[in-house]
Amino acid sequence: MELIEDLDRALVRDLQPLAESDQFAIYAVGEETYLLVHRHAGTPWTGVTLSGDGLFRVGSLMVDAMRHVYRDVASNLSPNKRTAG
Fold first, then answer.
1. What is the total count of domains within the chain?
2. For labelling, which of 59, 74, 76, 81 has a CA lying 20 to 30 Å from the CA of 15?
C-alpha cells in the first residue's frame, strides 16, 4: 500500500476507471494493483494503491462503517425520536 499525496494526472490519463463518482475513481494499474484516486478539482489529486486482496478488505471495512453511519442516522430519524413540529 502506498499513499500518493500529489498524484501526477498523467499516470491515469489513458486508463479507464473501473468505478468512479464525482470525486473518486478506482483504476487497475497492473500487477494486481489498484489505485483509489481522490479527484477533487480544487486540490491536488491524491491516491492510495491497494492489492486486489487489500481492495476486498478495505471494501469490507467500508461496508461496516457505512452500516454504522446508517444506523446512527436512521436512529435519529426514527419516529420515536422526532418531536412534534
1. 1
2. 59
Q: Kindly tell me if the per-residue pLDDT of 83 is higher than 70.
A: no
> Where in the sequence is the domain holding 66, given as residue range(s)?
2-77
Do the domain assignments include residue 84?
Answer: no
Backbone phi and psi for residue 83, each to the nearest 5 degrees, phi listed first: -95, 155
**In the predicted model, what is the mean pLDDT of residues 39-58?**
95
Cα–Cα dist 64/70, whole Å: 10
CB 39 within 8 A of CB 25: yes
Alpha carbon of residue 76 to chain centroid: 25
In a domain, 33, yes or no: yes
What does the alpha-carbon distance between residue 84 and residue 68 come to, in Å, rounded to a whole number? 27
Q: For all residues of the chain together, what is the average pLDDT?
A: 90
